[in-house]
Amino acid sequence: MQQSIFEHRIIMENIGDLYKLGTELGSGSYGIVRIVNKRSYKHKKYALKSIHRDRLNDDIKSIERELDILITIDHPNIIRFEELYMDSQYFNFVT
After folding, report:
1. What CATH number corresponds to the domain at position 19?
2. How do 41-52 and 31-38 pair as beta strands?
3. Number of structural domains found in the chain
């Protein structure tokens, strides 16, 4: 079910294959945020928000809302959405 909702906006790859995971910035009840570097472009840092899929309890609407908001935000001094990945355990928002 989750894949069909997001298949046009989500990349189905392991985030660790594309990004080097760095320092944890914070955590909450759904997941964690950490600094990452894209393996193909090591000099730029990104924030990775990983939300555990099991903790959503089928609340896919909250993920869709967050994605819709992130897509509309594009400010060089605040945040810019890059990509969304999904693997067997997490939704991974790269900003």
Report:
1. 3.30.200.20
2. antiparallel
3. 1
